[in-house]
Amino acid sequence: MSPKKEDPLESYGKRVFVYLITLLFDFFNSHASPSNQL
Asked: Domain of life, per the record (predicted)?
């Protein structure tokens, strides 16, 4: 069996996924804090 070649699209997708998760956390943190609601 030949070793699986690293798929650039797959690694790119994972990076974008992590980036979107980080954006979501920042969004919820900024909108859920009571100090920003005033």
From this structure: Bacteria
Q: How far apart are CA 13 and CA 5, in angstroms?
A: 16
Q: Determine the longest span between alpha carbons in the chain, in angstroms.
A: 61
Q: 1-38: per-residue pLDDT in tens?
A: 566 777 888 899 999 999 999 999 999 988 877 665 55
The three-class DSSP label of residue 5 is coil
Find where tokens 């992590």 sit: 18
Global confidence as pTM:
0.55
